[in-house]
Design brief:
Layout: E1 42-47, H1 51-59, E2 64-72, H2 81-85, E3 92-99, H3 106-115, E4 124-125, E5 128-129, E6 136-137, H4 142-161, E7 170-171, E8 178-179, H5 187-190
Parallel strand pairs: 6-7
Antiparallel strand pairs: 1-3, 1-6, 2-3, 2-8, 4-5
Helix pairs in contact: 3-4
GO molecular function, one term: L-methionine:thioredoxin-disulfide S-oxidoreductase activity
Keywords: Oxidoreductase
Catalytic activity: L-methionyl-[protein] + [thioredoxin]-disulfide + H2O = L-methionyl-(S)-S-oxide-[protein] + [thioredoxin]-dithiol; [thioredoxin]-disulfide + L-methionine + H2O = L-methionine (S)-S-oxide + [thioredoxin]-dithiol
């Protein structure tokens, strides 16, 4: 089966001028407003499939001080979840990770990224199919970009040695991050019996709002 194709900018949904998440809520686990970056903290953006499990993976990581689920990498301004599900926004489900570099390095976050999904799957993760589930790293500066590309090469060597295919992960400069609706923020904390490929091996995402 052919992989889903990326929508063009001309064919993308128009979106809206106002964010879909307003006012900004507080993180259900970490206690900060979702858009807060404390002094000394840094920001990273990762897409590795269903963002429910991805967000929990990172908020449970020591040194991560804030997380949020949202969208990046496409064309539609302020997309809704439903719009992104159509594949016509160009965005992929992305988690914003705010971390204390004195406690956890960006390279350690990259290790979690590479090890917790299949980066050789093009525009899908498991049963979640579409460009909105594509694997991506969105570095915010040259240092992050270099680290992402270096670790991609190292991980590819390991995959190739084990007989696996080529990594399809997109590494492009960070763009505007659009926060998803409140029901998608810390979803697996609010819905502890929900499923997602990350933290629920072999089980696709459960019923979505």
């Amino acid at each position: 089966m052919a992989a889903p194709q990326m929508v063009s900018a001309a064919d993308a949904l128009p979106g809206r001028s106002q964010p879909v998440l307003a006012p900004m809520p507080v993180h259900e686990v970490l206690g900060l407003p979702l858009d807060e970056v404390p002094p000394g903290a840094e920001v990273a953006y990762f897409a590795l499939g269903c963002y429910w499990g991805v967000e929990r993976l990172f908020w449970e990581t020591d040194g991560v001080v804030n997380t949020a689920a949202g969208f990046m990498g496409g064309f539609t301004p302020n997309p809704t979840y439903r719009e992104t599900c159509t594949g016509r926004t160009g965005h992929t489900e992305t988690v914003q990770v705010v971390f204390d570099p004195q406690r956890v390095s960006y390279e350690e976050l990259l290790r979690l990224f590479w090890e917790n999904h299949d980066p050789t799957q093009l525009n899908r993760q498991g049963n979640d199919i579409g460009t909105q589930y594509r694997s991506a790293v969105f570095p915010v500066d040259e240092e992050q970009r270099a680290a992402a590309e270096r670790t991609r090469g190292e991980f590819q060597e390991n995959l190739s040695a084990a007989g696996y295919g080529e990594i399809t992960t997109e590494i492009t400069p960070g763009q505007t991050f659009y926060f998803a609706e409140v029901e998608h923020q810390q979803y697996l904390h609010k819905n502890p019996h929900g499923y997602c490929p990350v933290h629920a091996t072999g089980v696709a995402c459960g019923p979505r709002p």
